[in-house]
Amino acid sequence: QCFMLPQSLGVIGGKPNSAHYFIGYVGEELIYLDPHTTQPAVEPCEDGQVPDETYHCQHPPCRMHICELDPSIAVGFFCRTEDEFDDWCMRIRRLTCKRGGLPMFELVDSQPAHMVSIDALNLTPDFSDSDRLERFFDSEDEEFEILSL
């Protein structure tokens, strides 16, 4: 149902070692594009028009059965204004109530007590935000490392 929201940007996910950008669905199949495919930057014509072919994919969209999707996904939404955000919140709450069962995510009016407070990241005043995050999430048993640019 997230694909049907006007604020939807799609979903990033896929299978292990294979990322996809999902843009919609048909029945039980998800429609996706390969996010690793790039196109050259577009130079507008002198009249400000952009060539039509720049809006078309080099490779056609593919399909994947929803049961093949890895559960680690990122769902994207974009709200231009506060009114659009309020509309998105209303739609999400409606979906959560309508569907029953466990929602993929939910909205809350205040921070749950069990969540780490953002103030907990303020270890000392002489660290940058990225240093605080790195120290907060630092663990020797992780298979990744946070890099600063």
Automatic annotation (TrEMBL):
GO cellular component entries: autophagosome; cytoplasmic vesicle; cytosol; endoplasmic reticulum; mitochondrion
Sorted UniProt keywords: Autophagy, Cytoplasm, Cytoplasmic vesicle, Endoplasmic reticulum, Hydrolase, Mitochondrion, Protease, Protein transport, Thiol protease, Transport, Ubl conjugation pathway
Superkingdom: Eukaryota
Principal location listed in the UniProt entry: cytoplasm
Pfam families the UniProt entry points to: ATG4_LIR (PF20166), Peptidase_C54 (PF03416)
Residue ranges of domain Peptidase C54 catalytic in the record: 1-90
GO terms under biological process: aggrephagy; autophagosome assembly; mitophagy; piecemeal microautophagy of the nucleus; protein processing; protein transport
Subcellular location: Cytoplasm, Cytosol; Cytoplasmic vesicle, Autophagosome; Endoplasmic reticulum; Mitochondrion
EC number: 3.4.22.-
Enzyme class: hydrolase
A single MF term (Gene Ontology): protein-phosphatidylethanolamide deconjugating activity
Reactions catalysed according to its record: [protein]-C-terminal L-amino acid-glycyl-phosphatidylserine + H2O = [protein]-C-terminal L-amino acid-glycine + a 1,2-diacyl-sn-glycero-3-phospho-L-serine; [protein]-C-terminal L-amino acid-glycyl-phosphatidylethanolamide + H2O = [protein]-C-terminal L-amino acid-glycine + a 1,2-diacyl-sn-glycero-3-phosphoethanolamine
Function in brief: Cysteine protease that plays a key role in autophagy by mediating both proteolytic activation and delipidation of ATG8 family proteins.
Family: Belongs to the peptidase C54 family.
Protein name: Cysteine protease
UniProt organism field: Nothobranchius furzeri (Turquoise killifish)
Organism taxonomic ancestry: Eukaryota, Metazoa, Chordata, Craniata, Vertebrata
Gene transcribed to yield this protein: ATG4B
